[in-house]
């Protein structure tokens, strides 16, 4: 199906372009959300008459997104979750959780604007990309920790999942022969 784009869509085209897309994508996403019109003569004339208002609305949304991006620039958000000794979370941190933390800080971000391909399943610092507008995206740091104190230590660069932090062992001092001695008898004594 050919459609006329009413806004810029990543990996598809710019506003005003006529592009060919799959029927299901057009019927289920582009047309219901008002992102495109079917490419026929009536809609082409309608688009040309409304082009200036669409461009103005798009520019306004872009400027609002840039203001939000400036406020988010360099911010880090802390999410406290239960985790095991190795840093594996007992649950996970999904896009919904990130939206909730952002809302608590006063940012109105939709779940579909959070680019998180896989849920976060371990403690640590994670970069998450937010798509505020089709032309504006920003990465924010999400600090997942077991407590607020632990989050502060992680923010300073301290690793909380290394062997030294967990077991009090210096990883650099460990050698392979400390774990396996081929000349040892099965009872652990050397021959």
From TrEMBL:
Residues 152-191 are annotated as: Disordered. HAMAP family: Ribosomal_bL9 (MF_00503). Keywords: Ribonucleoprotein, Ribosomal protein, RNA-binding, rRNA-binding. One of its GO terms (molecular function) is rRNA binding. Gene3D superfamilies: Ribosomal protein L9, C-terminal domain, Ribosomal protein L9, N-terminal domain. Binds to the 23S rRNA. Belongs to the bacterial ribosomal protein bL9 family. Residues 13-40 form the Ribosomal protein L9 domain. The keyword Cell membrane does not apply. It comes from the Bacteria. InterPro entries: Ribosomal_bL9, Ribosomal_bL9/RNase_H1_N, Ribosomal_bL9_bac/chp, Ribosomal_bL9_C, Ribosomal_bL9_C_sf, Ribosomal_bL9_N, Ribosomal_bL9_N_sf. It comes from Ensifer oleiphilus. One of its GO terms (cellular component) is ribonucleoprotein complex. Signal peptide: none annotated. The keyword rRNA-binding applies. GO terms for biological process: translation. This is Large ribosomal subunit protein bL9.
């Amino acid at each position: 199906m050919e459609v006329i784009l009413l806004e810029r869509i990543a990996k598809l085209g710019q506003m005003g372009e006529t592009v060919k897309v799959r029927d299901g994508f057009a019927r289920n996403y582009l047309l219901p959300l008002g992102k495109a019109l079917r490419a026929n003569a009536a809609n082409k004339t309608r688009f040309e008459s409304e082009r200036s208002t669409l461009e103005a609305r798009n520019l306004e949304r872009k400027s609002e997104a840039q203001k939000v991006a400036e406020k988010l620039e360099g911010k880090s958000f802390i999410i406290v979750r239960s985790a095991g000794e190795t840093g594996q979370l007992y649950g996970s941190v999904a896009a919904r959780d990130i939206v909730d933390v952002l809302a608590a800080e006063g940012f109105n971000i939709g779940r579909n604007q959070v680019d998180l391909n896989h849920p976060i399943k371990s403690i640590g610092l994670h970069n998450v990309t937010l798509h505020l507008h089709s032309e504006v995206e920003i990465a924010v740091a999400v600090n997942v920790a077991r407590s607020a104190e632990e989050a502060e230590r992680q923010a300073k660069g301290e690793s909380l999942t290394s062997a030294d932090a967990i077991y009090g062992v210096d990883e650099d001092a460990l050698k392979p022969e400390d774990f396996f001695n081929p000349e040892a008898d099965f009872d652990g004594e050397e021959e």
